[in-house]
Every structure is written in C-alpha cells, then in structure tokens.
Amino acid sequence: MTQALQPWWKTATGYQIYPRSFCDSNGDGIGDLQGIISKLDHLRDLGVGFVWLSPVYASPMRDNGYDISDYRDIAPEFGTLEDFDQLVAQAQDKGIRIVMDLVVNHCSSDHDWFLKACETRDCPEHAYFYWRDQSPETNGSPDDQRACFGGSAWTWVEAVGRYYYGHFGPGQPDLNWHNPALRHEVFDMMNWWLDKGIGGFRIDVIELIGKDLDTRIYAEGPDMHRFIQDMHQACFAGRDIMTVGESWSAKPDTALLYCGDSRHEVDMVFNFNHIDAAWDQDKGRFGPNLFDLPTHKRILASWQDALANDGWNSLYLSNHDLPRPVSHYGCEGPYRVRSAKMLAMTMHLMKGTPFIYQGEEIGMTNAHFTEIGQFRDIETLGQLKEQSARGVSQQEFIAGANTNGRDNGRTPVQWDGTKHAGFTTGQPWIDVNTNYVDINVEEDRSDPNGVFAFYQNLIALRGELDIITKGSFALIGGDDPNVFAYERALDDQRLLVFGNFTDKTVHFQMPETRTTQGKIVLSNLYRDALPSGDHVTLAPFEAFACLLE
Ligand code: TEU
Ligand code: CA
C-alpha cells in the first residue's frame, strides 16, 4: 500500500544549536552566526535536515537570548541580519533548513514595548503586559506567586504605580496574549521571519501563552489553544514549514490537542514527562537524579501510543536546558562511546522526529564545575540564592547543579584538542569542559567507530527504512529494569530494537521464542544475528536493531 509522501520534517533529523556555545568566529569568546556558517559542512556530513537555532535576536542576554529586546534584529554579539540571511542561504545549499526559536510568552524588560509601558498607562503598549495594582491584603505585591528563576513573579513600577507579571523573573515580563493588538504584533513579526525563508519555529513555553492570572491558571490556560490556532491561521497555514511547541505541561491525553492533524495548531510538541519524572518533587532539577528505566520506558511508550495514528512525536534526551545524556543516563567512563550510541539508537528508532543537541553527536559530557563562579545560568544562580537562604550549602548546591543544571549543556562545543577546544581564540564566556583534549569533534570523527560515525549511520538508516518513520511501536518487556526493547512493525516487516541501560551483562526475556534470526541493521558492538530462543544476552550498554522480514 503506497502511503502518502511524508512532510520533510517527519523524515528529517533535527540538530539544535545554542549559538552562544557553538562556534566563535571573531575571538570575543561568544559563539556567533559566522561561526555556525563555518561549521555547516559538519552538519551536512552528519546528515541532519534542519537546525533548531536557539534565539539570536537582540537581547540583553540575561537569559542568553530567551529575553528578546528586538524581535526584528540580530544580537550584535551573534552578528547581523545579513549574516543571518547568509546562514539561511548557505544551509539551504547543503539541504539544511533553519528553524528559529520563538520566545513570545514574554519579552525582555529592555524591549521598547515594555519601556513605553512603564512610562505611562496611557499607551497601547501598556496593555501588552499583565499589571496589578497594590493589594492591601498582601501588603504590596498582588500575590505570592514565585518566579521560575527566583524571587516574586510581580515587580513594582513606580512611574505607573502598578506591579507587572514576569513568570520567569523581572527581566522577562509576560506578554498579554489576551490583547488582540499584541497578538497582531507577534504574528506580523513571525511572518516577517517566515518570508525570509526560515524552515519554521520552535515555540518557547507555548503552554504559558493562555495563562489566566485571575484564576491563577498559568499553564494550558483556557485560551491557549485558541491563541495557537490564531497563530496557525495567521502564520503557518499554507507554508511548507515545521512548528514544534515546548510544553512542560503536555501529557499523552492532551498531546493531540496541540498536534492532531485536524487541530491546525503545531506539528509537534516537546513534552518533558520523561525528563521531570526523574526530578525531586521538592528541589526539582536541583535535587538528586531519580531515574528509573521502567518509568522512563512507560512514559516514552505512552507518547508513542498517544500519537500512533495522528499528530507526531519529537524524540530527544537533551537540549540547552538539560544535562548531557551520557552523563545523565549512560556512562562517562569506559562505556562512554558505547552508551552514547545506545542512547541515540533507542531514541532515534522510535516513531517521531529525533533532535540531536550540539555535542551529543560526539558524546560530550556534563561540566562538573567545582566553583560557584563557573556557573552562568540565570536559573541556577537564582536557585542558588533561594536554596542558600534555606540553608543549603554551596557544595550541596554545586552537586545538584552539576547533576541537572542547565550549564551542563551550555559549555562550548569541543571541536579539537587545541586551546579552548577550538571554540574560540579568545576567552570563552563559560569554561570549556576540561575533557576536551580527549573528547572533541576532530578526535571522534577520526574514529570509524566513533559516536559521530554511528549517528551518521543512524540518520542514514532513517532514510533507508520506511519502517522507522511509518511503522507502529510496541514496547517489549516494559518492566525489565535494565533493557529498553521495542518492536516496530510495517506490513510484513518487523524491526526489533534493544538497548542495555546498565554497565552489566544482562539477559533479556523475549515475549515468545523466536526462530527467525533476522538481519542486524545497526549495532554498537559486533553482532551478526539475533539469537533464536527465548532470551537475548546483552553486554554492558550494548544496543542493536534487527530487521525481520
Ligand atoms: O524553558 C522553559 C522552562 O521553564 C525551563 O527552563 C524549565 O521550566 C526550568 O528550567 C525548570 O527547572 C524555556 C527555555 O528553553 C529556557 O532556556 C528559558 O530560560 C525559558 O523557557 C524562559 O524563556
Ligand atoms: Ca563571537
């Protein structure tokens, strides 16, 4: 049965670039657009079809660009609009689309809209934001809502005699999406970028744009889907683009409301169910890592089931807010390379679009900072203040931040073994991981059995086997504590995928005795066939995929 041609973003693999840490072309210690342009061949060789480019708009960089002060200009430290147009054109020549990060739940407190709004109540821009008057019962601030990055979510502005709302903090005032004039400004700006030929948008914290502060509903508010449908109608309809909304609230039973084909909202969501399931209830990401494989597998499988016949999954383990996968789920020691490959295979061979985060393709590890002064992330430093006030020691906090803090993924990409890992000829804005001499692109790519080569094969396999993008998904042995195994099926083909998440040799019970051997299509160790019988023995962090026809 011939199936309809799939849109490009269902067969492509994505690659996220955090521009500040990717590659510095002018020696100021900060990555930039020309640095990205200089590395496009690395991305072409890898085989990715699009880049998710974290924000490069003008910004005071309090949150490294997730606080935008001019939506229609490039931050000077990243380059110019001409550099951006050059990036889009040169990437396109290499078959790579540029998907931009769109942060419109909030802007920067340095944005002209906000500066005007703070001067007088009598300008249209004042109503682009959420304001509250002094509330006597709480002797000042309208309520005790805490901001994500520490402190109160409400900040006083003397000139207008009111408090404004900043979900993340005072430097990132929330935009009032209930105001049609604000929505129009945003949609107009989005179309300006889309008309420049970008491949789409990753939309930051999309679940927050429908917030209702009167009823204190912050995520997935009553108007969220209406606003996303407005956005789709105004900007996405009729364009050959990809849109993915970041939602920390989406669940399998709400997923289709965002990305169901008939919803005309976004194509995919980044959900975080498999991420924050391992977070401490009280300390969140700054607590211990509570990872449990059966829970992890069950969550991933629930998303595969929810979007089996409609909508589409994003597949990822890391991004600019998360720790490095080999450190968090795999092994930094003798099995680093093998565990990096296992993690990649078990994520990429599920149904959905995989996203590789910069450095993941060579198995970069967490930062392991030793001093508070090495941390740069606004959230980490905000939480340090809050947790210190609660008596948490610096050493205890550093341990938590090194486990799950956002700086782990923001140390510069390690290109080679020269000073600062070839990232910059200047002083890097954040320390380069000290293991760069051994772990870098040049070193890894020189190894035919390196992580990069494995990702190349994995991405190439996606293009060769329709079963990967079209087949059904079924978890095998969901309760097994060591192995993530699943079966993909398409017509009379089966693809069995196995990944051992431990540093031990383990035996995995097959659900039924298999007589056929099948063909190993990818493995991170040598293996020539799937053994017949009722179990499989897997070496530490071994992974393989076997095609049965
Ligand atoms: O992140 C959403 C976000 O809230 C996460 O930062 C998460 O809730 C928090 O780290 C929990 O510990 C997006 C961007 O990815 C992030 O980089 C921005 O800082 C944030 O929104 C604000 O724009
Ligand atoms: Ca630079």
List keywords for this structure.
TIM Barrel, Oligo-1,6-glucosidase, domain 2, five-stranded antiparallel sheet, 20 strands, 549 residues, binds 1-O-alpha-D-glucopyranosyl-D-fructose, alpha/beta, binds calcium ion, Immunoglobulin-like, eight-stranded parallel sheet
pLDDT < 50 stretches? none
Helix count equals 17
Bound small-molecule species: 1-O-alpha-D-glucopyranosyl-D-fructose, calcium ion
CATH class of the largest domain: Alpha Beta
**Main sheet: strand order:** 11-10-9-5-2-1-13-12
CATH level-4 homologous superfamily of the largest domain: Glycosidases
Which structural class do the helices and strands define? alpha/beta
Name the overall outline. globular
What is the CATH topology descriptor of the largest domain?
A: TIM Barrel
Query: End-to-end distance, in Å?
Result: 16 Å
Just name the CATH architecture of the largest domain.
Alpha-Beta Barrel
The share of residues in extended strands comes to 15-25%
The mean pLDDT is: 95
User: Rounded to an integer, what's the Rg over CA atoms?
Assistant: 23 Å
What percent of residues adopt helix (DSSP H or I)?
Answer: 25-40%
Tell me how many strands there are: 20
Q: Name the assembly state.
A: single chain
- Tally of domains: 3
